[in-house]
Amino acid sequence: MLAMAAFALLGFLLPTLSRASLTDRSHTSSNATLACSDAQVALGAGSVDTAPVSPTLVDLNWSETCWTEPACVIKPKSTKNVAATLSIVSRYQVKFAVRSGGHSPNPGWSSISSDGILIDLSRLDQITVSSDNTTVSVGPGQRWGNVLAALDPYGVSVIGGRTPTVGVGGLVLGGGYFHFSGEHGLAADNVKNFEIVLGNGTITNANAKANSDLFWALKGGGPNFGIVTRFNLYTIPVHDIYYDLVLYSADQIPGLLDAFASWQNGSGGVFDVKGTVAMIVGLEYATVGFIYSSPQTKRPAAFDAFAGIPVMTVVIPPSNGTVWSLTQIIGAATASAVERHDYLAAASQVDGRLYNRVYNFWKERAADVYAKTGANQTFVIQPVPLNLVQQGIAKGGNALGLPLKNMQWWTTLVDWQNAADDDTARSVSIATSEEWKKGSDINFLYMNDCARDQNPLAGYGRENIAKLKAVSRKYDRGQVFQRLQNDGFLLRKV
Ligand SMILES: Cc1cc2nc3c(=O)[nH]c(=O)nc-3n(C[C@H](O)[C@H](O)[C@H](O)COP(=O)(O)OP(=O)(O)OC[C@H]3O[C@@H](n4cnc5c(N)ncnc54)[C@H](O)[C@@H]3O)c2cc1C
Ligand SMILES: *[C@@H]1O[C@H](CO)[C@@H](O)[C@H](O)[C@H]1NC(C)=O
Ligand SMILES: *[C@@H]1O[C@H](CO)[C@@H](O)[C@H](O)[C@H]1NC(C)=O
Ligand SMILES: *[C@@H]1O[C@H](CO)[C@@H](O)[C@H](O)[C@H]1NC(C)=O
Ligand SMILES: *[C@@H]1O[C@H](CO)[C@@H](O)[C@H](O)[C@H]1NC(C)=O
Ligand SMILES: *[C@@H]1O[C@H](CO)[C@@H](O)[C@H](O)[C@H]1NC(C)=O
Ligand SMILES: *[C@@H]1O[C@H](CO)[C@@H](O)[C@H](O)[C@H]1NC(C)=O
Ligand SMILES: CC(=O)N[C@H]1CO[C@H](CO)[C@@H](O)[C@@H]1O
Questions:
Q1: What is the pTM of this model?
Q2: 193 pLDDT more than 60
Q3: Region 88-94: what's the mean pLDDT?
Q4: N or C: less crowded end of the chain, CB within 10 Å?
Q5: Which residues form the signal peptide (predicted)?
Q6: Closest CA to 245 of 314, 187, 300, 179
C-alpha cells in the first residue's frame, strides 16, 4: 500500500522534476508531457492547456464519442505557432491529433487520449475578403456559418458546409459538398491556394502553379500531408436564392424516393444544375427542401417530378432569401443536444427501385433500434449530378477519382445517449451500407460522411492512391502524418 502511494506521489511530481533535470527527461516523464512543456515555452503558457485539460476544451468535439482528455491541447495563434508545434511533435516523436471544427464523430480523428497532444486550430479563424470580392481567405478553425455570414454583405458566397457549426478545415480537405455543388463543384474544387505546414515544420503554399502535385492531393486527400493553416477560396456569385421547405408523411416516402430519382434523371427534360433537393428521411416523416440558386416567382419547373406527391406540412412557403438566411434556418433546425453521434457513407447510381429497397431495409432496423435504445437516425440521399464531377475536372482536377456519372451519396446521422448502446445504434447504418453495396455500381465513398470503420481513400482508385502516396513521401519525408497522427482517413491504412 505504502509503496503504491509513494509511486503515485512520484508520478504526480515527475513533470516538475523532469523540467528541472534535463538529462532524466526520456526516463522520467512521457514524451507527450515533455512536448507539452516545450510547447508552453515556445508558444506561451496561454496557448497550451495541460492536464487536467479544461473540460470545455475536451468537450469541444460535437460528438461525445470523441471526448477524451489529451496530455495537453495546443492552441496555435499563427501559422508560425503551428510550425513550432510540428517541430516539437517531431522532436519527441509524440502522437498528435488535429482539430478544426471538431465535427468528425469518429473517435481519435480529431481527438486523442493522454498519450498524445491535441492541436486545436480554433484560433486560426480569420475571414478576409479580397478587394474585388472574388476570393476569401479563411482560417481552418472557422465555421461555415460565420464564413457565409461574413460574405453576405459582399453579395457572394462560397462552396462550404450546409450546417453552420461545421468546421472549415476538415470539410474542405475531404471534398466539401454544398447546396450549389451541382453547379460549381465541391469546396475543394474551389480552392485557389492552401497554406500548409509540412511534417518537418516548413511553411509552404500549394496552388495551381506552386507545388501543384500537393495542391491536387489536398483536394480531397484528407489529413495526410500537413496542417492546412489557410484556405484561399474562390467565392461564387450566388447570394439571392429561392427555397421552400415541406414535410411528407411516412406513407409518401416510397413515392418520394421514386420522384427523387426521376428528378435526378431530368424527368424527361434536361437536369437543371441550378436546382437542388435536400431530403432527410426519418422514421415518421421526410423533410424536403427545394433550393434554386437565383430568385424565382414560384417553385421552378425543374422540381416538377415532386409535384404530384401530397405534402403533409409546409414549413417554409416558396420564398426568396439568401444563402445566409438559408444557413440560419438550417442552424435553427439542427439539434443541439449533447450526445453520441455517428455518420456513415454509401453511394449508388440513380435508381428509384434501389432507393426503395434499401429504405425498406433501413426502416425496419432503425425502428427496432429506436425501440430498444431511443437512437434516432436519418436516411439521406444527396444528389451528385454529373456536372459536379465535371466541375472538378474543369477546375483542375481533384484526388477523389469520381466516376463520370450521375449518382447519389447516401448518408445518415445517428444520435444516441449511452455508450453501452454504441454497437446497437451503429449496427443499422453498417448493415444498410452493405445493402447499398449489393445494388450499387459506384465504388466511391464520400470521406466527409465516412464512419470510423470505412476506408474512403481505397475508393479513389489505384492510380490516385499511388499518386497520393508519392506526394506524401515527397512532402512528408519523415512520414509524420502517417506514423504519428493518431487516426483518421490515412494513407497508412490503404
Ligand atoms: C451536422 C453535420 C453537418 C455536416 N454537413 C456537411 C455538409 O454540408 N457538407 C459536407 O461536405 N460535409 C458535411 N459534414 C461532414 C463534415 O464535412 C466532416 O464531419 C468534417 O470532417 C468536419 O470538419 P471539421 O473541421 O469540423 O472536423 P474535425 O473533426 O476538426 O476534423 C475532421 C478531420 O480533418 C482533419 N483536419 C481538420 N482540420 C485540418 C487541417 N487544417 N489540416 C489538416 N487536417 C485537418 C482532422 O484531423 C480530422 O481527421 C457534416 C457533418 C455534421 C456532423
Ligand atoms: C522521446 O523523445 C526523445 C527526444 O527528446 C527521443 O529521442 C525518443 O526517441 C522519444 N521516445 C519515443 C518513445 O519516441
Ligand atoms: C464588393 O462588395 C462590396 C460590398 O458589398 C461592394 O461595395 C463592391 O462594389 C464589391 N466590389 C466588386 C468589385 O464587386
Ligand atoms: C435514370 O437513368 C438511368 C441511366 O440512364 C436509368 O438506368 C434509370 O433507370 C433511370 N431512373 C429513373 C428513375 O428514371
Ligand atoms: C422573388 O423575387 C423576384 C424578383 O427578383 C420576384 O419576381 C418574385 O415574385 C419573388 N418570388 C417570391 C416567391 O416572392
Ligand atoms: C430523438 O428525437 C426526438 C424527437 O425530435 C427527441 O426528442 C429525442 O431527444 C431524440 N433522441 C436522441 C437520442 O437524440
Ligand atoms: C521540409 O520538407 C520539404 C518537403 O520535403 C523540403 O522541401 C524542405 O527542404 C524540408 N525542410 C527542412 C528544413 O528540412
Ligand atoms: C464543435 C461543437 O459543436 N462543439 C460542441 C461540443 O459540445 C459542447 C458542449 O456541449 C458544445 O458547447 C460545443 O458547441
A1: 0.93
A2: yes
A3: 97
A4: N
A5: 1-20
A6: 314
Run of H or E residues at 275: strand 275-281
Q: Residue 74: pLDDT above 70? A: yes
- Indicate if 76 and 209 belong to the same structural domain: no
Ligand 7: which residue has its CA nearest to atom 3? 475
Same domain membership, residue 135 and residue 115? no
> Could you tell me the CATH number of the domain that includes residue 45?
3.30.43.10
- Between the CA of 272 and the centroid of ligand 4 the distance, in Å, is 16
CATH for 196: 3.30.465.10
> How far is ligand 5, taken at its centre, from the CA of residue 314, in Å?
18
3-state DSSP call for residue 146? helix
Separation of CA 480 and ligand 2 centre (Å) = 14
Closest approach atom of ligand 3 to CA 133: 1
Query: What mean pLDDT do residues 382-393 have?
Result: 98
Residue nearest to atom 12 of ligand 2 (CA): 93
| Residue minimizing CA distance to atom 8 of ligand 4 | 351
Which of ligand 5's atoms lies nearest the C-alpha of 240? 5
Containing structural domain, residue 99: 31-120
Residues in the chain: 494
> Which amino acid residue places its CA nearest to atom 11 of ligand 7?
202
What mean pLDDT comes out for the span 451-468?
98
Residues above pLDDT 70, as percent of the chain: 94
Q: Are 160 and 140 in contact (CB under 8 A)?
A: no
pLDDT band at 18 (very low <50, low <70, confident <90, very high): very low
Query: What is the pLDDT of the chain when averaged over all its residues?
Result: 93
- 22 lies in a domain? no
Residue of 423, 382, 93, 439 whose CA lies nearest to 264: 382
Is 23 a residue whose pLDDT tops 80? no
Q: End-to-end alpha-carbon separation of the chain, Å?
A: 48
Q: Is 318 in the pocket of ligand 5 (CB under 6 A)?
A: yes
Give the pocket of ligand 4 (CB within 6 Å).
Answer: 261-262, 265, 350-352
- Count of domains forming the chain: 3
Distance 297 CA to ligand 5 centre (A): 4
